[in-house]
Write the structure tokens for this entry.
Amino acid sequence: MKPFQFRLERVLGWRRKKCQMEENRLAVCHGLVHATERQIEHLRTERASIDRELLDRSAIPAADFLNLGSYRLGASQRAAELANELQQRVVSASEQRARVQRAQQGVKLLEKMRERRLEEHSSLAGRELEQVAAEAYLSRWSQVHRAG
């Protein structure tokens, strides 16, 4: 019997590569989400640090209050931008996760098909072996009974 060969092996290989590419894209999306979250946390920490520094002073010049107001306005705008960016990146990551799941399902489907074909091939090989063994037994049996 010829060795097992899955006809869709190249397709399975291609699907595995595509799945790996989608998983890599998902990792990049997660990296971008985490980077944006770190930027948001850094901005919060910076704002709190500046507020503490200013409040710890015994006397606060008017120019510092004006600068603080400008800084807070800019920081609020940056926080809004980062929140929007984070939301977009979370949505992108979610969409990419769906692509990864579809790619994984395609790979699993082909792998199951491959397993079934291999089981069928093994079963046929077993039957073929049994048939050859039975024929060999009958051949010897008939030779023994003819001679005897």
